[in-house]
Write a structure and sequence with these properties.
CATH architecture of the largest domain: 3-Layer(aba) Sandwich
CATH class of the largest domain: Alpha Beta
Shape: elongated
Number of helices: 11
Low-confidence stretches: none
Bound molecules: adenosine-5'-triphosphate
Radius of gyration: 22 Å
Number of strands: 11
Number of domains: 2
Helix content: 40-55%
């Protein structure tokens, strides 16, 4: 691989708190190692359109504590076409970019793999609130999103208890129940319904609610992952079956925003620096990951072929503790 002197950095897919901390780490570590760092705006769209600028130490001042991404993000349909990909490669040559750090989810890593296949070395950093990247135990943004969900559910619980209501709360996670399970354990949910596990309405929702009522519970919290959906309908069905007043709350995009937690800032900083270290040593086509509390890296194709699923012990624990 040719020597890498200039690197680009972009954020792609859904934004996640901590992406700014990762951008900051890439820029400052890059400059520390004597590299030129170019910011690419709006994900792969910015790459195709040449929306690219040189970043300096001050370009990333005052962003460590901010949610969202200063580089902005996008989902680029054009980039996923052959013509779009070729355009992106041409632009990297025009701007003299020798390697790119891609901060995003699996989709973004597929794009990074395609760039790598065409000779543009890339390193992926897992940035998504869903924690659904198979090669990594952790993705940037997960802890902040969980804390936001925890705060919201604690507040909903206050009013649910006062009125002896059931609250059905929909949290993010289209294909993954990590937010639902972790938030459910942290907030003491009576039922947690996730896309990875089939559920039976009577066995998994109505039964625990009725049994809890007999044991003297004054509220019920049912957490639904976004991939299951239908929170409003679910609340109506619960009310019809149990006679307990039930209300639905869809937390939505509130879960994406906000100042990143310490955990997200530190891990984003470590991952950003690691990505730069690989590129400056001429190593591309990798994905940064966290395994057993260590920052490691995997081949991008291997990483994309891995699978992971929610820990069954966590699912069981949530049930035991909801008694
Ligand atoms: P999130 O987990 O937040 O959804 P993501 O990175 O998985 O993040 P996607 O919308 O799937 O988000 O992907 C972001 C961008 O990556 C897409 O708009 C597209 O430009 C590119 N991309 C996605 N899938 C592919 C693919 N199979 N091949 C090439 N590029 C892709």
């Amino acid at each position: 691989m040719a020597e890498i002197k200039t690197i680009g950095v972009l954020t792609s897919g859904g934004d996640a708190p901590g992406m700014n901390a990762a951008i900051r780490a890439v820029v400052r570590a890059g400059i520390h190692y004597g590299l030129k760092v170019m910011g690419i705006r709006k994900g792969y769209n910015g790459l195709i359109n040449g929306d690219i600028f040189e970043m300096n130490l001050r370009s990333v001042s005052d962003i460590l504590h901010r949610g969202g991404t200063i580089l902005q993000t996008a989902r680029s349909a054009e980039f996923a076409t052959e013509a779009g990909l070729n355009k992106a490669v041409t632009i990297t040559k025009i701007f003299g970019i020798d390697g790119i750090v891609v901060i995003g989810g699996d989709g973004s890593f597929r794009g990074a793999r395609d760039l790598s296949n065409l000779g543009v070395p890339t390193v992926g950093i897992p940035g998504t609130i869903d924690n659904d990247i198979a090669c990594s135990d952790y993705t940037i943004g997960f802890d902040t999103a969980l804390n936001t969900v925890k705060d919201a559910i604690d507040k909903i619980r206050d009013t649910a208890t006062s009125h002896e209501r059931c609250s059905v709360i929909e949290v993010m996670g289209r294909h993954a129940g990590y937010i639902a399970i972790h938030a459910g354990i942290a907030t003491g949910a009576e039922a947690i319904i996730i896309p990875e596990k089939e559920f039976d309405f009577h066995r998994d929702i109505i039964k625990p609610i009725i049994e809890g009522k007999h044991r003297g519970k004054k509220h019920d919290i049912v957490i639904l992952a976004e991939g299951i959906g239908g929170a409003v309908e679910m609340a109506k069905k619960i009310q019809a079956e149990t006679g307990i007043e039930a209300r639905a709350t869809i937390l939505g995009h509130i879960q994406r925003g906000g100042s990143p937690t310490v955990m997200d800032r530190v891990i984003a900083s470590q991952m950003g620096a690691k990505a730069v270290q690989l590129l400056k040593d001429g190593i591309g086509n990798r994905v940064i990951a966290m395994k057993d509390n260590k920052i490691v890296d995997f081949d991008i194709v291997e990483a994309l072929n891995m699978t992971k699923t929610v820990d069954q012990d966590m699912v069981e624990l949530a049930k035991i503790l909801a008694m």
